[in-house]
DNA sequence: TCATTTATCTGACTTTAGTCAGGTATTTAT
DNA sequence: ATAAATACCTGACTAAAGTCAGATAAATGA
């Protein structure tokens, strides 16, 4: 990494630090110290029990306790013991607290909208922000098996289809591409794995099974903003593990040489090229892997 | 601006706030309060006199004074009166202070390198960071007339040429493109205007004059990361003002329809299409504007 | 059951940050 | 020459943030 690149990174850090500081100043204008405001916001964002708040905000138990007491006497929150474990406690915003939380939310949203609005093409800026967000939050990316019918899968598949349409100049239609039955993409026959950051979908891959020991890998996709971080490999590892757990011993897949990143990943991960095994219009290269 | 976009912005804010916080924690591990560390770093970055420090760090005079006293007793800085105005004072890092500043610099650089290194394609991430940096620092962008021989102009011109090569599929060579003499691009005949953020070049435009009242606009370019912010218009306004100041009454320019953003900007700013006025190979559309 | 652990709270601190009213030395304006 | 303005400093504060050693109540484990 050369110094010029590091300087660009640090210019970035400086500019966002200024922006963060300005937002905090606007919070302080509400007349409440930042510590209390942070706690109030964390509660509003759904961090309801005290120990969750403590880890989320990295606060000392004594300090947090006092801040909660403060918000309580302001009438912004109510605290009651957790019925499941009466040692721990659950906080909740009162209607007044809800109102105050909304004020903070509005301040944040307005700052965001302001910066986005002065861009002729906010999409360009947001794409850049996604790239940064994902790079900085790399540790928080999760790989989960999800229901094929869930909303996040729909998001992934439409992004997947849109990208293939663009890259395969022939266009692309999911339905002409060995489109699986629901039952083939969920337990016990198959599964669907999604890479996520919070609720932002970063990538996906499906295992399309039929109860035999041979199954197919379908719909492998990584969001453009998430590329270059090695997520595809981790996604494939997760999928292969899931296949093994379903007693699948042979995986096959089809793809297109235009998707060169995918092709070289498969080659890299021990997939072997095999003969065409279907008549789908889009693929022109086929792979197999014994698990 | 819809809520989904605002949420993406706010996810971004959250992730960078975490990163900023982590860097500050690593600073605190040096055993010095953040306030002092900030002052030390500001001095190391070249903010030498006390009033400059005060505005840069937005600190109260009393507070800054005390922080300086603290760094002095630590033996990290020395302060002496400004010989030009003995009311004001100039601070300087001692050798020990220099060392300590380097430690902070190393901490920052290492964090940056760490995040960049885990990216297969750091250029992609850095480009995204530039887009964000420029969007957030929009108010700090300056438009300056500079010497045609200066380093920043060389940077702009090579980026300009690289982009034209890519977009005009015929390729592009500065020398075949009415390449001006040095004297034509500087006072009193012409000038060269650069848009900058700090020392990052964001765009440029030249006025190529020959002592008559007619001059030519050349080399208009905006960095990809800086597009969509309306900089081209501000750049052109600056250039037209500079031309007026040089007693130029008619400006002409040539460009290519492929550069559609530029063409529509000219049309928008009151330029009128005229007949071809040179034999250069690249342009296919010509404009004129009376000042 | 009873010692131990866990989750939170309280009190008594210290440190850091921030504010503000003078005060001194120097420069500027008239 | 002298009043006003400027640049910085000091002292005397307040507020906020952070620390830490108990204390209490509830849950857990042998």
Present the secondary structure layout.
2 copies of one chain form a homodimer.
Chain A: H1 3-28, H2 34-44, H3 50-57, H4 61-73, E1 77-81, E2 89-93, H5 95-117, H6 122-136, E3 142-145, H7 151-167, E4 191-197, E5 200-208, E6 214-222, H8 231-245, E7 250-255, H9 260-268, E8 272-274, E9 285-290
Helix pairs in contact in A: 2-4, 2-5
Chain A binds a DNA duplex (30 and 30 nucleotides) through helix 3 and helix 4.
Short description:
The structure is a homodimer of 291-residue chains. By secondary structure, chain A is α+β, with helices and mostly antiparallel strands.
Description:
Two copies of one chain form a homodimer. Chain A is of the alpha+beta class and 291 residues long. Chain A has two domains: 3-118, Arc Repressor Mutant, subunit A; 139-290, 3-Layer(aba) Sandwich (Aminopeptidase). The first copy, chain A, has nine helices and nine strands. Chain A has helices at residues 3-28, 34-44, 50-57, 61-73, 95-117, 122-136, 151-167, 231-245, 260-268, and strands at residues 77-81, 89-93, 142-145, 191-197, 200-208, 214-222, 250-255, 272-274, 285-290. In chain A, the strands form two sheets. A seven-stranded mixed sheet of chain A has the order 3-4-5-6-7-9-8. Chain A has a two-stranded antiparallel ribbon with strand order 1-2. Chain A is globular and about 70 Å long. Chains A and B meet through α1, α5 and α6 of A and α1, α5 and α6 of B. The first copy, chain A, binds a DNA duplex (30 and 30 nucleotides) through α3 and α4.
